[in-house]
Write a structure and sequence with these properties.
two-stranded antiparallel sheet; elongated
Length: 242
Protein backbone atom coordinates (compact mmCIF):
# COMPACT_ATOMS: atom_id res chain seq x y z
CA UNK A 1 0.00 0.00 0.00
CA UNK A 2 1.47 3.37 -1.02
CA UNK A 3 0.66 6.93 0.02
CA UNK A 4 0.97 10.04 -2.13
CA UNK A 5 2.96 12.92 -0.65
CA UNK A 6 0.80 15.86 0.27
CA UNK A 7 1.31 18.74 -2.15
CA UNK A 8 1.36 22.20 -0.51
CA UNK A 9 -0.15 24.83 -2.80
CA UNK A 10 2.29 27.46 -4.08
CA UNK A 11 0.34 30.35 -2.57
CA UNK A 12 0.53 28.72 0.90
CA UNK A 13 4.28 28.27 0.49
CA UNK A 14 4.71 31.91 -0.45
CA UNK A 15 2.57 33.04 2.51
CA UNK A 16 4.55 30.86 4.94
CA UNK A 17 7.85 32.25 3.64
CA UNK A 18 6.53 35.82 3.80
CA UNK A 19 5.25 35.37 7.36
CA UNK A 20 8.59 33.90 8.44
CA UNK A 21 10.43 36.86 6.89
CA UNK A 22 8.13 39.39 8.62
CA UNK A 23 8.51 37.57 11.95
CA UNK A 24 12.29 37.65 11.65
CA UNK A 25 12.18 41.38 10.79
CA UNK A 26 9.94 42.09 13.80
CA UNK A 27 12.22 40.13 16.11
CA UNK A 28 15.27 41.99 14.80
CA UNK A 29 13.49 45.33 15.27
CA UNK A 30 12.48 44.41 18.85
CA UNK A 31 16.03 43.35 19.68
CA UNK A 32 17.45 46.57 18.21
CA UNK A 33 14.89 48.68 20.11
CA UNK A 34 15.72 46.84 23.33
CA UNK A 35 19.44 47.49 22.87
CA UNK A 36 18.73 51.14 22.04
CA UNK A 37 16.60 51.59 25.19
CA UNK A 38 19.30 49.96 27.32
CA UNK A 39 21.95 52.27 25.85
CA UNK A 40 19.77 55.35 26.43
CA UNK A 41 19.07 54.28 30.03
CA UNK A 42 22.81 53.98 30.61
CA UNK A 43 23.39 57.45 29.15
CA UNK A 44 20.54 58.90 31.23
CA UNK A 45 21.98 57.36 34.40
CA UNK A 46 25.42 58.74 33.59
CA UNK A 47 23.98 62.19 32.87
CA UNK A 48 22.01 62.17 36.14
CA UNK A 49 25.17 61.34 38.08
CA UNK A 50 27.03 64.13 36.28
CA UNK A 51 24.27 66.64 37.04
CA UNK A 52 24.22 65.61 40.71
CA UNK A 53 27.99 66.19 40.90
CA UNK A 54 27.62 69.55 39.13
CA UNK A 55 24.86 70.65 41.54
CA UNK A 56 26.89 69.55 44.57
CA UNK A 57 29.92 71.55 43.37
CA UNK A 58 27.76 74.64 42.75
CA UNK A 59 26.19 74.36 46.22
CA UNK A 60 29.60 73.96 47.85
CA UNK A 61 31.01 76.93 45.94
CA UNK A 62 28.09 79.09 47.10
CA UNK A 63 28.53 78.04 50.74
CA UNK A 64 32.28 78.67 50.57
CA UNK A 65 31.71 82.12 49.06
CA UNK A 66 29.27 83.03 51.86
CA UNK A 67 31.66 81.79 54.56
CA UNK A 68 34.66 83.62 53.13
CA UNK A 69 32.64 86.85 52.81
CA UNK A 70 31.44 86.52 56.41
CA UNK A 71 34.96 85.80 57.62
CA UNK A 72 36.25 88.91 55.86
CA UNK A 73 33.44 91.01 57.29
CA UNK A 74 31.80 91.55 53.90
CA UNK A 75 28.26 91.00 52.66
CA UNK A 76 27.79 88.29 50.08
CA UNK A 77 25.26 89.08 47.37
CA UNK A 78 23.93 86.05 45.50
CA UNK A 79 23.71 86.26 41.71
CA UNK A 80 20.40 87.39 40.26
CA UNK A 81 17.88 84.69 39.42
CA UNK A 82 17.75 83.65 35.77
CA UNK A 83 14.38 81.95 35.93
CA UNK A 84 11.00 82.63 37.54
CA UNK A 85 7.89 80.54 38.03
CA UNK A 86 4.70 82.46 37.28
CA UNK A 87 1.24 81.39 38.49
CA UNK A 88 -2.07 82.88 37.36
CA UNK A 89 -4.30 83.74 40.33
CA UNK A 90 -7.05 85.86 38.70
CA UNK A 91 -9.73 84.95 36.17
CA UNK A 92 -10.78 86.65 32.94
CA UNK A 93 -12.93 89.46 34.38
CA UNK A 94 -11.91 93.07 33.71
CA UNK A 95 -8.83 92.26 31.62
CA UNK A 96 -7.62 94.89 29.18
CA UNK A 97 -6.80 93.69 25.65
CA UNK A 98 -3.08 94.13 26.30
CA UNK A 99 -3.23 92.15 29.55
CA UNK A 100 -5.17 89.40 27.79
CA UNK A 101 -2.56 89.23 25.02
CA UNK A 102 0.35 89.08 27.48
CA UNK A 103 -1.32 86.27 29.42
CA UNK A 104 -1.69 84.37 26.14
CA UNK A 105 1.99 84.96 25.33
CA UNK A 106 2.92 83.68 28.79
CA UNK A 107 0.65 80.65 28.13
CA UNK A 108 -1.34 81.40 31.29
CA UNK A 109 -4.80 80.79 29.86
CA UNK A 110 -6.43 79.20 32.91
CA UNK A 111 -6.63 79.89 36.62
CA UNK A 112 -3.80 78.26 38.61
CA UNK A 113 -1.73 77.61 35.48
CA UNK A 114 2.01 77.95 36.06
CA UNK A 115 4.96 78.36 33.68
CA UNK A 116 8.71 78.88 33.81
CA UNK A 117 9.88 82.24 32.45
CA UNK A 118 13.44 83.20 31.52
CA UNK A 119 14.11 86.57 33.12
CA UNK A 120 15.30 89.32 30.80
CA UNK A 121 14.24 92.88 30.07
CA UNK A 122 11.37 91.89 27.77
CA UNK A 123 9.87 89.26 30.09
CA UNK A 124 10.23 91.54 33.13
CA UNK A 125 8.18 94.21 31.32
CA UNK A 126 5.51 91.65 30.46
CA UNK A 127 5.36 90.27 34.00
CA UNK A 128 5.11 93.71 35.58
CA UNK A 129 2.29 94.76 33.24
CA UNK A 130 0.10 91.82 34.35
CA UNK A 131 1.38 91.71 37.95
CA UNK A 132 -2.08 92.13 39.59
CA UNK A 133 -3.18 88.92 37.83
CA UNK A 134 -0.26 86.70 38.80
CA UNK A 135 2.12 85.75 41.55
CA UNK A 136 5.69 84.70 40.86
CA UNK A 137 9.08 84.08 42.37
CA UNK A 138 12.37 82.25 42.03
CA UNK A 139 12.06 78.45 42.27
CA UNK A 140 14.76 76.29 43.80
CA UNK A 141 16.27 73.35 41.94
CA UNK A 142 14.25 71.00 44.14
CA UNK A 143 11.02 72.80 43.22
CA UNK A 144 11.80 72.60 39.49
CA UNK A 145 12.38 68.86 39.87
CA UNK A 146 9.18 68.32 41.89
CA UNK A 147 7.09 70.25 39.36
CA UNK A 148 8.38 68.33 36.35
CA UNK A 149 8.26 64.93 38.04
CA UNK A 150 4.93 65.53 39.81
CA UNK A 151 2.92 67.69 37.39
CA UNK A 152 4.94 67.57 34.16
CA UNK A 153 3.24 66.97 30.82
CA UNK A 154 4.75 67.32 27.37
CA UNK A 155 3.32 68.83 24.20
CA UNK A 156 3.49 66.26 21.40
CA UNK A 157 1.55 66.97 18.20
CA UNK A 158 -0.57 69.48 20.14
CA UNK A 159 -1.53 66.77 22.62
CA UNK A 160 -0.90 66.76 26.39
CA UNK A 161 1.20 63.68 27.08
CA UNK A 162 2.35 62.61 30.59
CA UNK A 163 6.11 62.36 31.11
CA UNK A 164 6.01 58.76 32.31
CA UNK A 165 8.52 57.59 29.68
CA UNK A 166 11.78 59.16 28.54
CA UNK A 167 10.90 58.28 24.95
CA UNK A 168 8.28 61.07 24.99
CA UNK A 169 11.06 63.59 25.63
CA UNK A 170 13.57 61.94 23.33
CA UNK A 171 11.23 61.95 20.34
CA UNK A 172 10.60 65.69 20.63
CA UNK A 173 13.82 67.13 22.11
CA UNK A 174 16.39 64.45 21.26
CA UNK A 175 17.79 66.61 18.44
CA UNK A 176 18.69 69.25 21.08
CA UNK A 177 20.49 66.76 23.33
CA UNK A 178 17.57 66.43 25.77
CA UNK A 179 16.62 62.77 26.01
CA UNK A 180 15.35 62.19 29.54
CA UNK A 181 13.65 63.91 32.46
CA UNK A 182 16.97 64.78 34.14
CA UNK A 183 18.19 66.43 30.92
CA UNK A 184 14.97 68.45 30.82
CA UNK A 185 15.30 69.54 34.47
CA UNK A 186 18.93 70.54 33.90
CA UNK A 187 18.08 72.57 30.80
CA UNK A 188 15.29 74.44 32.61
CA UNK A 189 17.24 75.03 35.83
CA UNK A 190 20.45 76.23 34.14
CA UNK A 191 18.53 78.18 31.43
CA UNK A 192 20.60 76.37 28.84
CA UNK A 193 20.95 77.14 25.11
CA UNK A 194 17.79 75.15 24.31
CA UNK A 195 15.68 76.55 27.15
CA UNK A 196 13.08 77.91 24.72
CA UNK A 197 12.50 74.52 23.08
CA UNK A 198 12.46 72.71 26.44
CA UNK A 199 10.06 75.22 28.02
CA UNK A 200 7.72 75.21 25.02
CA UNK A 201 7.69 71.41 25.15
CA UNK A 202 6.42 71.54 28.74
CA UNK A 203 2.66 71.98 28.88
CA UNK A 204 1.66 74.78 31.31
CA UNK A 205 1.47 73.23 34.76
CA UNK A 206 -2.10 72.71 36.00
CA UNK A 207 -1.81 73.33 39.75
CA UNK A 208 -4.40 72.78 42.46
CA UNK A 209 -5.90 75.47 44.61
CA UNK A 210 -3.38 75.99 47.45
CA UNK A 211 -3.92 74.39 50.83
CA UNK A 212 -5.20 77.04 53.27
CA UNK A 213 -6.06 79.21 50.26
CA UNK A 214 -4.59 82.43 48.89
CA UNK A 215 -4.12 85.65 50.77
CA UNK A 216 -6.23 88.68 49.77
CA UNK A 217 -6.05 88.76 45.98
CA UNK A 218 -6.72 92.50 45.81
CA UNK A 219 -3.50 93.37 47.61
CA UNK A 220 0.17 92.82 46.67
CA UNK A 221 2.21 90.20 48.46
CA UNK A 222 4.45 92.68 50.26
CA UNK A 223 1.31 94.15 51.87
CA UNK A 224 -0.09 90.82 52.97
CA UNK A 225 -1.90 90.06 49.73
CA UNK A 226 -1.48 87.42 47.03
CA UNK A 227 -0.27 89.00 43.78
CA UNK A 228 3.23 90.12 42.87
CA UNK A 229 6.77 88.99 43.50
CA UNK A 230 7.24 86.47 46.31
CA UNK A 231 10.93 85.89 45.52
CA UNK A 232 12.03 82.66 47.27
CA UNK A 233 8.71 82.36 49.15
CA UNK A 234 7.07 81.12 45.95
CA UNK A 235 8.51 77.68 46.71
CA UNK A 236 6.26 77.40 49.79
CA UNK A 237 3.23 78.31 47.67
CA UNK A 238 4.12 75.78 44.95
CA UNK A 239 4.47 73.06 47.61
CA UNK A 240 0.88 73.82 48.71
CA UNK A 241 -0.38 73.67 45.10
CA UNK A 242 1.29 70.47 43.85
Amino acid sequence: MCFRARVVPENIQKKTARDAKLLAAQKAARDAAKKDRAAKRAVATKNAAGYAEEYAKADKALIDAKRSAKKAGNIFVEPEAKIAFVIRIRGINKLSPKQKKIMQLLRLRQLHNGVFVRLNRATWNMVRYVEPLITYGYPTRSTVSKLIYGRGFGKVNRSRIPLNDNSVIDQTLGAHGISCVEDLIHEIWTVGPHFKQANNFLWPFKLSSPLKGFEKKRHPYHKGGAWGNREEQVNELIARMI
